Amino acid sequence: MTRSPFLKRITPQLIILAIVLLLNVLVLPDFFTVKFQNGRLFGNIIDVLNRGAPTALLCVGMTLVIATKGIDLSVGAVMAIAGATAASLVVEGQHWTTAVMGALAVGALCGAWNGILVAFLRIQPIVATLVLMVAGRGIAQLITEGTILTFLDQGLIHLGAGTVLGIPTPILIWLSLGSFAAFLVRRTALGLLIESIGINEASSRLAGINSRVLLLCVYVVSGIGAAVAGVIVTADIQGADANNAGLWLELDAILAVVIGGNSLLGGKFSIVASLLGAMIIQSVNSVILLSGMPPEFNLVIKALLILAILVIQSPKVSHIIYILRASTPPAKVDRPNPAKELKR
Amino acid sequence: MNIKSTLLASAIALMPFAAAASDLTIGFSQIGSESGWRAAETTVTKQEVAARGIQLKFADAQQKQENQISALRSFIAQGVDAILIAPVVATGWDEVLEEAQDADIPVILLDRTVDAPDDLYLTAVTSDLVHEGSVAGQWLVDDMAGADCRIVELQGTTGSSPAIDRKTGFENAISGHDNLEIVRSQTGDFTRSQGKVVMESFLKAEGGDNICALYAHNDDMAVGAIQAIKEAGLKPGTDIKIVAIDAVPDAHLAIANSEMNATIELTPNMAGPALDALAAYLADGTVPPKWIQTESRLYTAADDNQAIYEVKKGLGY
């Protein structure tokens, strides 16, 4: 019996996630306890899913961008811009749906800006998106006028801090958007086309793929994902914090993609594996918070855990594991032989 | 409009002084506007100067030392009567301060100090971060009055001097009181969102009923934590006492809504004491001490926080 290729692809991520969650149980034995409290599911595992939402939303777009051999450094700043836009619109008295639409439009615009620089002006992605990464927080501060712009619009707050049937809204948002994107790229030829750009853009263009438009679209998707993440973090604290919203989160998103086993050199990708990567990062954060260690150790612990994860995934180590498995004789399994059964 | 009304109010209050005001001109080199507090400091400085009838030359350095040095040189060239500066970094000031001294222009440092011989400036007006922490600790000692209390602490950015000093001050104040114990301490990076995230983990790791008080190194983290406490179905300010530092408008609002218990002010009014010292120095040569410590005032539910909120909201926080 052969395992499905999809399951085989995400097996390393599932194993690592299980190990990190086990570490959580070691530092806090009732880690998996989930209670229904104050009208919402309440527990550490819910926190991991909830707090991982921004990274998960960013890494959907980031996976696609990286699959085209690109990178998007601007997503953290786009989060700040989108959050500031949504907050300023509700403060002006607009309905929260208008505010969310406005934020998404701004996110798409930022993505289009990156896409044009990369696809049409042929600027290297790391430099092209660096422009918006640096300028973006300034733009966000212009929108909020330098203050933390607070609001009390219940509709908008619900997106970040509310629940639907007891489940925090951000979890539902990233799960549905993530699975929609994964489904779309794998049930249509879209995923294959994106991969072909990452592997060899010139020959994919010669094969008739409109690589420029596709590149543009990929950056727009990344911008929209960042905008959704920005709206969530803004709604969560009921205020747009232009200085800190999404700060350094682009790095977590890239890390999630890498932990998801995707190559930064482009080509084959898996959105589901990246999403698992995002959950692995959040579980590592959770270990640090729950361990009660002094904060001076936070970054050291995180670095060590991430290093361990990357070493386990490295081609050299997986090759050694492969050799070891190949050299050990297969264990004798005492299984009734179907052929004999039939004869009998 | 709010700024105008506060300006007017302070102008009326200070009318007797204003009447005696001379035709002084002073230069103020501000770091920039990296935080709400900084913006409030700029606003309050302009108010204080206007209330005394002094001319102000204002220069925004946009976080760059070279801009501040050239601003100081231009103040010296224009022959101002005194210079106020909020230095962006601690080092590299000796030369320009000597130039000011040669021109006989007194320099007063606001909010931060510099690594230069202290005869190069008249005085430094700053807050005492350790003292702020100990005022917070003392408030909790008094409020608990001997009852047992398990405290969780939200630290500022790891390694930053406000985080180190505010932690030290608080620990000094509660040491010797065996009923008070810090059970968890983690950084919230001075931000609302991290304050909320870390408080969520505290509530789960310790159990909400086992936490009696929260000490946050700034108000923003406390405001984030208040939301986490509410989402856990507890009453912030009642089930869990909350004390933080800075006294930003949103903290006053939280105290007015009984969701927070106390905040210690990091006053944006550094210019007031500086200008008073300057006036005394210019009038009869009274040399002020090299360090003027601003008041770290404690605000609790006993104050009219709604009114303070309305006033502070207009300061640009």
From TrEMBL, chain A:
Its main location: membrane. Keywords: Cell membrane, Membrane, Transmembrane, Transmembrane helix. It comes from Pacificibacter marinus. It is a multi-pass membrane protein. GO terms for molecular function: transmembrane transporter activity. It is found in: Cell membrane. This is Inner membrane ABC transporter permease protein YtfT. It holds the Pfam family BPD_transp_2. InterPro entries: ABC_transp_permease. The chain crosses the membrane at residues 12-28, 48-66, 73-91, 97-119, 126-144, 156-185, 213-233, 245-265, 272-293, 299-324. GO terms for cellular component: plasma membrane.
From TrEMBL, chain B:
GO terms for molecular function: carbohydrate binding. Keywords: Signal. InterPro entries: Peripla_BP_I, SBP_2_dom, YtfQ_transport. The keyword Methyltransferase does not apply. Pfam families: Peripla_BP_4. Transmembrane segments: none annotated. Residues 1-20 form the signal peptide. GO terms for cellular component: cell envelope. It comes from the Bacteria. It is found in: Cell envelope. Residues 26-285 form the Periplasmic binding protein domain. Belongs to the bacterial solute-binding protein 2 family. This is ABC transporter periplasmic-binding protein YtfQ. It comes from Pacificibacter marinus. The gene is ytfQ_2.
